[in-house]
Amino acid sequence: MKKWLVGAMASSGLLLASCSSSPEVASTEAGRIREDDLYERMKNEPTESGMSYGEQMLQQILLEDILENEFGDAVSDEEVDAEFEAEAEPYGGAEAFEEMLTAQGLTLDDVKQNIRTSLYVKEAILAHTDMTEEDVQAAYDEYLAGETVAHILVEDEELAQDIIEQLNDGADFGELVAEHSMDTGTIATNGEMALEPDRFVPEFEEAAMELEEGEITEEAVETEYGYHVIKKVQKGTLEEERENIETMIIDGYMQDQQLVQEAISNLVQDANVQITDEELSGAMQQFMDMPGVEETPEGMDIPEGTEEGMDTPEEPEEGMDNPEETEEDPETSEEDIEEETSDEE
């Protein structure tokens, strides 16, 4: 009799557990799926990275919160909007860009949040690295040592010729890069790139090599990527080139995975992260175990930003590099930033 009662109680307990009173998220004729069911599945479902989906999502939320807490005052809505406009330009403007985002399952808010986080990351890197005047001077000396070209990539030959006419009439090259170039990876540097052997497709390299310093191609240069307006860069003094040099240095910092990891780890460790759900406790472990973090600049360091985890739409193909050596998407950054993320309780 007692054994039967124990069995019945156990069975009713299982029944009660499956009849969760949490809100329903979906249903079929076979049954209902509730928030608790989804939460438990996400906590335990593994991903290719070895973390569970729950740990990844928690990590992302925690990193976004930590970044905003540290650098929310350093990034304005105007800066985010300006970056969004720059990203939208190659797609035909904001309206066309939003349509493309919708087709990819993204929203305007998603992309702007990614942009904001990327700007937080840049602030974080600057706080973590402490760029010195010696760094700027060294980068400038290296910049002077090699030849540099700038280009504007467009789809239409007629537009390319019109741009050449505008430049001949005194228009600013950098402004026309921002307005027209499909190569979003070089917009931040006014279209400039080091003229390195075998980096570019033959048509581009040949035309660039024939230019004198400060000279612009008389005709648009056609390649498989579109039509290029190319300029051999005339390099100025350190003060004239300072903005470009500092941008190049920061871009280098952002590509240094070790540096970014250290910066994020310092921020996470300073944030006193507490995860009360044991099944999600590994969400921030990679940042807690970072070796040598104590030696990094005063605890004012910052989590990574635009790396893995932040989804951004695919950019148009960059127009200058040899297909065998195509550069990664900027995006920008960065990445695509499939960012591993986590949440604190």
Residues in β-strands, percent: 5-15%
Provide the gyration radius in Å. 26 Å
User: If you average the pLDDT, what whole number results?
Assistant: 80
Q: Which structural class fits the helix and strand makeup?
A: alpha+beta
**Biggest sheet overview:** 4 strands, antiparallel
What distance lies between the first and last C-alpha atoms, to the nearest angstrom? 45 Å
Which strand order does the major sheet show?
4-3-6-5
Sequence of secondary-structure elements = HEEHHHHHHEHHEHEEHHH
Low-confidence sequence ranges:
1-18, 292-345
Total strand count, please? 6
Outline:
globular
Number of H/I helices: 13
**Percentage of helical residues?**
40-55%
Sum up the structure in keywords:
four-stranded antiparallel sheet, alpha+beta, 8% strand, 345 residues, Chitinase A, domain 3
What is the structure about, briefly put?
By secondary structure, the chain is an alpha+beta fold. It has 13 helices and six strands. The strands form two sheets. The chain has a four-stranded antiparallel sheet, with helices on both faces. It has a two-stranded antiparallel sheet with strand order 1-2.
